[in-house]
Specification:
The chain is mainly β. 11% of the residues lie in helices and 28% in strands.
Length: 329
């Protein structure tokens, strides 16, 4: 196994930047990855006391596929963002207040009607990843190849917006690595958890079209929406393209987590809703008021207007009734 590609995504929701190598710190994030974001809601964000917010608060591909029309490059030393769009190339000095406002207006026009009035936000040592903790995402290219075979269509690995892409591992084997130690070059990682996929992966990074249903296909074939894993750096080091990837011997046999149909599926949840943004399936019983009887919750069980998805933060307007599913999703 070896590292095939390395990428960072300096602006949340915007394009990838390939890297030949990266220096990682123990417990740290991928440097300059999602270090900038465009806040599109009224949620408070204080750069002096930053806190994590769910991804639906920001411009990103899950809700704003037209962002894929842009090819961006960020120079963190000069604080310059270069944006190639169908109308030409623009340069924005993000420390210039006028340029910053121009950039915000440009992104609002590009993203479309659901963008709100985005505000560029950042804070030292803060990231705008989909998860609150410091994790690094890894994709196994063999799993993407297998997914493409099932779809009978090409699948660009950049749909998955991972930091580390590896070759040489059996398809889907990475899902069995949770809890194991991984060595890449001289850097050590703990494989922390699976990566559940959202509607951002449906967007073609080359055309900005929603032309595939990646989470739906994963659910159809494997009963979950997981593709790739999150890593935590446990020993600092440098990772380079071409570096070997070595899975440490497991101290004890781990339960198989590979995407195979369950022998005994969980009882069906007949009343459920699905978030169209992140594909989380929510049993309707969760919408019952806390004062309702557990035995006889009120009917119909409809999501309240102020409901927010616990996974991505999207609102109730993005819920749709789901087909009967197995388990809570």
């Amino acid at each position: 196994m070896h590292v095939a590609q390395l990428y960072r995504y300096p602006v949340k929701g915007l394009s990838a930047e390939p890297l030949a190598s990266v220096q990682l710190e123990a417990g740290g994030t991928f440097p300059f990855d999602r270090c900038l974001a465009f806040l599109r809601t009224q949620s408070d964000f204080d750069a002096d006391a930053p806190h994590w917010l769910p991804k639906a608060n920001f411009l990103m591909l899950m809700l704003h596929e037209r962002l894929a029309e842009l090819d961006t490059r960020y120079d963190p030393e000069r604080r310059l963002l270069l944006v190639d769009s169908p109308t030409g190339t623009r340069r924005f000095a993000i420390d210039d207040p006028d340029a910053r406002r121009e950039l915000e207006a440009f992104l609002e026009r590009t993203a479309g009607s659901r963008a709100g009035a985005p505000r560029l936000v950042e804070a030292p040592a803060h990231h705008f990843m989909d998860k609150a903790d410091n994790v690094i995402s890894l994709i196994n290219l063999a799993s993407i190849d297998d997914l493409a075979r099932r779809l009978q269509k090409a699948v660009d690995p950049l749909r998955f917006r991972a930091n580390i892409y590896i070759s040489g591992a059996p398809a889907w084997s990475e899902l069995d690595w949770v809890g194991r130690e991984l060595r890449i070059g001289n850097t050590l990682f703990r494989v922390d958890r699976r990566n559940g996929r959202c509607a951002a992966t449906n967007v073609n990074p080359s055309t900005a079209a929603r032309d595939l249903d990646i989470p739906g296909t994963l659910r159809q074939h494997f009963g979950h929406k997981d593709c790739g894993v999150y890593l935590v750096v446990t020993r600092a080091g440098c990772v380079r393209t071409g570096d070997g990837v070595e899975l440490a011997a497991s101290p004890a046999p781990l339960p198989a987590l590979s995407p195979a149909p369950a022998a005994s599926p969980a009882p069906a949840v007949s009343e459920a809703w699905m978030c169209r943004a992140c594909y989380l399936v929510v049993p309707a019983v969760r919408f019952a008021p806390s004062s309702a009887s557990a035995a006889k919750p009120p009917r119909p069980l409809l999501p309240p207007a102020d409901w927010k998805c616990p996974d991505c933060g999207a609102g109730a307007t993005l819920l749709e009734r789901a087909q009967p599913v197995f388990g809570p999703g």
